[in-house]
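Q: Hi! First time doing this. I have a protein sequence and I read that you can turn it into a structure. Is that right? Here it is:
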Amino acid sequence: MSVSERVRAVVEPVVSAQGLELFDLEHAGGVLRVTVDRPGGVDLDTVTATTRAVSRALDDLDPIAGRYTLEVTSPGLERPLRTPAHFRWAVGQRVSLKTGPGFDGPRRLTGELAAATDEDITVVLDEPAGARRTLALADIERARTVFEWGPGPKPGSPSRGSKHPKPSKSPKTGEVNAP
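A: Yes, that's right. Below is the predicted 3D structure, encoded as structure tokens:
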């Protein structure tokens, strides 16, 4: 059993007991990154409680030789896509991809993820608009979902966080007039 499999065997039940899904597990460069999620997202209290529970389980069962830093996090708004399961989850969403060196085609692609299998994905590209491109997962260096922000405030309207209109100055006296 590999280190990754041993760590997953320890971490997954602990995360499930917290009412969470193990979104990703990455052990690289002395860092063990445990990414958790649930419908509606996770808050800081949930991440803190999960960090403590995972840390205790890892200390008790010690599946990793040597020193490492534990990070428990949420996947965030723009989720990294690393596994076939991640890509299947993201079907229908906007994605940004970077292909590996030597890929026959552009290095950066964006569009809607139309399909995903264990071996490849199909993206409906932004440029050229509507073109479909199928890529092998092995050709993808990095991928993530793309969060689309809503429209900004209309010109001349108060900003979203503004509760009170700004006071104005009188053109004749320069005095401040509160609304």
